[in-house]
Design a protein that fits this description.
Its cofactor is [4Fe-4S] cluster. It contains 30 helices and 36 strands. It is an alpha/beta fold. The chain has six domains: 60 residues, no CATH class; 163 residues, Aconitase, domain 3; 126 residues, Aconitase, Domain 2 (3-Layer(aba) Sandwich); 217 residues, Aconitase, domain 3 (2-Layer Sandwich), CATH 3.30.499.10; 196 residues, Alpha-Beta Barrel (Aconitase, domain 4), CATH 3.20.19.10; 37 residues, no CATH class.
């Protein structure tokens, strides 16, 4: 119940229904805010309680200074939480463990329930084991259930045990597309009271690409599973009122360019501008001309350019999309009436004040790709061959001499595939995958890919035999409109058969490359590439055999499958010849914008969405026939290698122990710039010799059944062994070594060891650990295990030049202290090589309710010389200080619940 001290509560009549609402017009200044801040303002008005959320917070938002640096803290209460299964399973494990902890303290286990709607879409577990054939979907799903039965049984238990928790079963689609097409309300209605309350739909999600729903005017962003659990349990998200970047769009996308090219251009622009921790809001006359699918594509990439959210306002295009995707007439009427009443309806003539301004004329966008290892590294397609050749030498080992005929390094290897001899070399496209939430939600690029495939087949072109091709749509609706447009046959002819509905290659579930290609690559140390229509191409993410990864639009994925190599210039080199022997170039088969739009208009209907989402939570026979346990608490199986009781509440005391300074710490890893959460906690496959592989082997799991790190996130034993285990991570404590290794200073001379093994030795001797990092530490996915694993390895603090937003928050959420080097300084500039012994003092001030601005760091070298500096404490809000004092957000919430009872 809101205090309503500012008199904002009023009513809204829509048709025959009257709703309560909290009017922004009640407080002077709120009407001038950018759209996203208006949504936050309503959130504060409605949830004002005089304690966590006060009238002063509302006034500080009304008086927002767009030019000031963020300093005012507010508490944001999302309407709902959305999860995918990789990050969602650990959330449910933690909730199940919390129920046990409450029971052990004499409480009621059913007091642990999501307090807001929590919805999980199982989309991250399907792997492309079978491809290029009509039965690929069914066979991959059979394998998926076989691998993940324990996890799915656990989720079926959670579906029945927890109130306010719903699960969309496997084989439905990608979480963000399901969110966009079905789960999102745009305007939420709470019917708990006598009169329904209408308010903006807002959400946080356990996947960083939750921002995709920003395209619908829904304010939401990715948080770690740690923050998501707290939000589910009724805890507001503590945040500073952010700076808002106004991004003006003008013009129209030219012929030959796609929405993917637009988003890669925007990603590059915003990365270069610097938007970490900021909101990006699109405005201007050009907004109305941007289709909703393109808005969602742009919103989806928000984590890639670093912003918290990238939002479009509500307008007529929003309503048209919601109508197409099956929302009711009553809901559409409410959304339009509410948005207009609150000043949330887009008025291109009204320009809000923004903190910073950018502009893009869409007519200047050109076809592009991004790579070979970061989404912001955009390359114009016309320069792609040259850029690949320039990047290649840094990926080669040994003699990288230039072949005089080719003008580049070459190592040709003959392989036999399906009885035919062929030659592979550096730069071959080993994987071409149409996958991921970013693009498979967008009919224009998906149908462009289908039309290009049709044109290619008609001209006699085929994918090269060494390319593993795949199609993993974001929802079943894509399949419907491909059938309606008559494009499936051509896609299948080129090997782009349906392999699953889920986040496959983009999350590292690409499956093995063609066996003969694998042997040729591994035996001859070839540097080969993947091309995918995804949003992430970080090192080691896509496939362990593939060193270079490029993001591209769906039609360009097909084009590269036809070319078969990155060493190809589409403008000057043909893709092949037709039946008459004429050269066929990409321009000859590329569909026009008019052709694509005509197929979009004729192939997609509202009925497709209504039918596909009619019974979305029921699942297929595989899901319904799972033998799921029942009961208020989960019966843990001690033999399970998938789901184990989380250790985070072991020995938890009723009151938090005082925090202490860190003495005698060693450096576990010294890392460079742009270390991602993929580097810290990889999601893909792992080898038998790794600590995680050894653990599973010791527990009787065959190598073929290892599955992936992502699928085993419900087992802390696997995940802590996989922390800092990415095959491409470079620990600067070691020279020229890649992978999850470090130096173990508990042994004489500090020999090389696996990170996990060294951490165990340090813990046995009571030695605390620190990690040294560079710029943008923890960028990438909102991966809670990157923080959980760091904690379980015994790391007490991470000292970096800068942090990405979510990972910094997650570290605090697990009781790990994030610290930054003094401005302009780094580990290298200070002379730190990672062999020092560290002492950090000043942390204990937190026990007195004071968050110190800095802590003093003293690093003592082996020769006795000290290096001293003051590190900036990145605990940014009082709420975060409470979490840190409690040893993390989950312990804080559990203690709050215990005190409440």
């Amino acid at each position: 119940m809101s205090l309503n001290s500012l008199g904002a509560k009023t009513t809204l009549r829509v048709g025959e229904t009257t709703y309560d609402m909290y009017a922004l017009s009640a407080v002077d200044g709120l009407e001038k805010l950018p759209y996203a801040l208006k949504v936050l303002a309503e959130n504060l008005l409605r949830n004002e309680d005089g304690a966590n959320i006060t009238a002063d917070q509302i006034r500080s938002l009304a008086n927002w200074d767009p030019d000031a640096e963020p300093s005012d803290e507010i508490q944001f209460t999302p309407a709902r939480v959305v999860m995918q299964d990789f990050t969602g399973v650990p959330c449910v494990v933690d909730l199940a463990t919390m129920r046990e902890a409450v029971t052990e303290q004499g409480g009621d286990p059913t007091s642990i329930n999501p307090q807001v709607p929590a919805e999980m879409v199982i989309d991250h577990s399907v792997q492309i084991d079978v491809f290029g054939e009509p039965t690929a979907l069914e066979r991959n799903m059979d394998i998926e259930y076989e691998r993940n039965r324990e996890r799915y049984q656990f989720l079926r238990w959670g579906q029945g045990a927890f109130d306010n928790f719903r699960v969309v079963p496997p084989g439905t689609g990608i979480v963000h597309q399901v969110n966009l097409e079905y789960l999102a309300r745009t305007v939420f209605v709470n019917t708990d009271g006598d009169v329904p309350v209408a308010y903006p739909d807002t959400c946080v999600g356990t996947d960083s690409h939750t921002t995709m729903v920003n395209g619908l005017g829904v304010l939401g962003w990715g948080v770690g599973g740690i923050e998501a659990e707290a939000a589910m349990l009724g805890q507001p998200v503590s945040m500073l009122i952010p700076r808002v970047v106004g991004f003006k769009l003008t013009g129209e996308i030219p012929a030959g360019a796609t929405a993917t090219d637009v988003v890669l251009t925007i990603t590059q622009m915003l990365r270069e501008h610097g938007v970490v921790g900021k909101f990006v809001e699109f405005y201007g006359e050009g907004v109305a001309a941007v289709p909703l699918a393109n808005r969602a594509t742009i919103g989806n990439m928000s984590p890639e350019f670093g912003s918290t959210a990238a939002i479009f306002p509500i307008d007529a295009e929003t309503i048209s999309y919601l109508r197409l995707t099956g929302r009711s007439d009553e809901q559409l009427a409410l959304i339009e009436a509410y948005a207009k009443a609150q000043g949330l309806w887009h008025d291109p003539a009204r320009e809000a004040r923004y903190s910073e301004y950018l502009e893009l004329d869409l007519s200047t966008v050109v076809p592009s790709i991004a790579g070979p290892k970061r989404p912001q590294d955009r390359i114009e397609l016309s320069a792609a061959k040259t850029a690949w050749r320039e990047a290649l030498p840094s990926y080669l080992s040994g003699d990288a001499g230039v072949d005089p005929q080719l003008g580049r390094p070459s190592r040709e290897v003959e392989v036999t595939i399906d009885g035919e001899a062929t030659t592979i070399d550096h730069g071959i496209v080993a994987i071409a995958s149409i996958t991921s939430c970013t693009n498979t939600s967008n009919p224009s690029v998906m149908l462009a890919a289908g039309l290009l495939a049709k044109n290619a087949v008609e001209r006699g072109l085929r994918s090269k035999p060494w390319v593993k091709t795949s199609m993993a749509p974001g929802s079943q609706v894509v399949t419907d409109y491909y059938r309606s447009a008559g494009l499936w046959d051509a896609l299948n002819t080129l090997g782009f058969n349906l392999v699953g509905y889920g986040c496959t290659t983009c999350i590292g579930n690409s499956g093995p490359i063609i066996p003969e290609v694998h042997d040729g690559v591994v035996d001859n140390d070839l540097t080969v590439v993947s091309v995918l229509s995804g949003n992430r191409n970080f090192e080691g993410r896509i496939n362990p055999d593939v060193k270079m990864n490029y993001l591209a639009s769906p039609p360009l994925v097909i084009a590269y499958a036809l070319a078969g190599t990155m060493d190809h210039d589409f403008a000057t080199q043909p893709l092949g010849t037709d039946a008459e022997g004429n050269d066929v170039y990409l321009a000859d088969i590329w569909p026009s914008n008019e052709d694509v739009q005509a197929v979009v208009d004729s192939s997609i209907t509202r009925e497709m969405y209504l039918e596909d989402y009619a019974d979305v939570f029921a699942g297929d026979e595989r899901w319904r026939s799972l033998d799921a346990p029942t009961g208020d608490t989960f019966a843990w199986n001690e033999d399970s290698t998938y789901v184990r009781k989380a250790p985070f509440f072991d020995d938890m005391t009723p009151e938090p122990e005082p925090v202490s300074d860190i003495q005698g710490a060693r450096v576990l890893l010294k890392l460079g710039d742009s270390v991602t959460t993929d580097h810290i906690s990889p999601a893909g496959a792992f080898a038998q010799a790794t600590p995680a592989g050894r653990y599973l082997s010791e527990h009787g799991v065959e190598r073929r059944d290892f599955n992936s790190y992502g699928s085993r996130r419900g087992n802390h034993e696997v995940m802590m062994r996989g922390t800092f285990a990415n095959i491409r991570i470079k620990n600067q404590l070691l020279d020229g070594v890649e992978g999850g290794f470090t130096r173990d200073f508990t042994r004489e001379g500090g020999p090389q060891a696996y990170v996990y093994d060294a951490a165990q030795n340090y813990q046995a001797q009571g030695v605390p650990l620190v990690v040294l990092g560079g710029k943008e530490y923890g960028s990438g996915s909102s991966r809670d295990w990157a923080a959980k694993g760091t904690l379980l390895l015994g790391v007490k603090a991470v000292i970096a030049e800068s942090f990405e937003r979510i990972h910094r928050s997650n570290l605090i959420g697990m009781g790990v202290l994030p610290l930054q080097f003094p401005a302009g300084e780094s580990a290298d500039s200070l002379g730190l090589d990672g062999t020092e012994v560290f002492s950090l003092t000043g942390i204990e001030a937190l026990n007195d309710g004071v968050t110190p601005r800095t802590v003093h760091v003293q690093a003592t070298r082996a020769d006795g010389r000290d290096i001293e500096f003051d590190a900036v404490v990145r605990i940014d809000t009082p709420g975060e200080a409470d979490y840190y004092r409690n040893g993390g957000i989950l312990s804080y919430v559990l203690r709050q619940l215990a005190h409440r009872d």
